[in-house]
Design a protein that fits this description.
By secondary structure, the chain is of the alpha/beta class. It has helices at about 20-35, 50-70, 85-100, 125-140, 155-165, 170-175, 200-210, 225-235, 240-250, 280, and strands at about 45, 70-80, 105, 145-150, 180, 190, 265, 270. It has one domain: HUPs (Rossmann fold, 3-Layer(aba) Sandwich), CATH 3.40.50.620. The strands form 2 sheets. The chain has a 6-stranded mixed β-sheet with strand order 3-2-1-4-6-5, sandwiched between helices. A two-stranded antiparallel ribbon has the order 7-8. The N and C termini lie far apart (about 60 Å). The relative contact order is 0.15. The protein binds iron/sulfur cluster and zinc ion (ZN) (2 copies).
Length: about 290
């Protein structure tokens, strides 16, 4: 199969691109994401787990940062998962060094229980709460304007499908490509520059650019509902375009007006929907 632009051997079969034109396609997606939201001259914290998506995100954003006047730093959250967290940290630190970006580390154990110490059937849900809380808090305390995450098209689809299958409209509508910063609520907005790029595309981007990433699996991943849904998605979607169509259709649904009010947690002073936030009630030692 040949590249649709230059006729050389294609490495990306679905859209027929050679390595050079795949690279151009990938960076164009990131550029148009930033341009569509007018993201310029801001301090952006990159949430890097060390996996392929966040490593590709860090590299991709670094390639365009000067065009958009972005100041970037890498944040790694150590969840205290024996064996796994150390392995992931190596790759997160590696990409920060490779790109000459500041590397920041936050340990869940400095706040309370580690993920390994939490015995719960919905451990991934609690882990997600911990990650969102810690990245928001770190970004707010260190003057970042936005947090960028490596969420990709497959993540968003899995999120939407999970919401639909469990009648959770908030989850369905929560799969947004952007959320604004509300400094008065200590809430730092999220950027998802890989929103319309798939897992396979991120993997290929890493390969083409010689980027090493963590391939280890979290020992708790068997309980990850997202992974199970992703397996089921393989027989549902025939092409990337179908995935995009699905997400775009869902995003046409208007959010109900009566949104939950964000307040500040009575214990830690960070955003919460309840008097005490989920992080303080589930993770912080009493
Ligand atoms: Fe956390 Fe679950 Fe992911 Fe493990 S698989 S890192 S517990 S969200
Ligand atoms: Zn080409
Ligand atoms: Zn709290």
């Amino acid at each position: 199969m040949r590249c649709r632009i230059c006729g050389r051997e294609a490495v990306y079969k679905e859209l027929r691109f050679c390595p050079q034109h795949f690279q151009a396609f990938y960076l164009k997606k990131i550029r148009s994401y930033l341009a569509s939201l007018r993201i310029r001259n801001l301090k952006v914290l990159l949430a890097v787990s060390g996996g392929k998506d966040s490593v590709a995100l860090a590299h991709g954003l670094s390639q365009v940062k000067s065009e958009f006047g972005l100041k970037l730093a890498v944040l790694f959250i150590d969840l205290g998962i024996p064996g796994y967290s150390e392995e992931c940290r190596k790759y997160a630190r590696g990409i920060a060094e490779n790109l000459d970006l500041p590397f920041c580390l936050v340990r869940l154990s400095d706040y309370g229980k580690t993920i390994a110490e939490i015995r719960h059937e919905r451990i991934c849900g609690i882990c997600g709460t911990a990650k969102r809380y810690l990245m928001n808090r770190f970004a707010w305390e260190n003057g970042f304007d936005y947090i960028a995450t490596g969420h990709n098209l497959d993540d968003e689809l899995a999120f939407i499908l999970n919401g639909l299958l469990s009648q959770d409209l908030q989850m369905v509508l929560g799969a947004e490509k952007f959320s604004p910063t509300r400094k008065e609520k200590k809430l730092i907005g999220k950027l998802k520059p890989l929103y319309y790029l798939t897992e396979d595309e991120n993997r290929l981007y890493c390969e083409i650019n010689g980027l090493d990433y963590c391939r280890a699996k979290c020992p708790f991943s068997r309980s990850a509902r997202q992974l199970e849904i992703k397996e089921r998605m393989k027989s549902l979607f025939k092409s990337k375009q179908e995935k995009i169509n699905f997400v775009k259709t869902i995003r046409k649904i208007k959010k109900p007006q009566e949104e939950q009010q964000v307040r500040l947690c009575e214990k830690c002073g960070f955003p919460s929907f309840q008097p005490v936030c989920k992080f303080c009630s589930l993770i912080v030692e009493k």
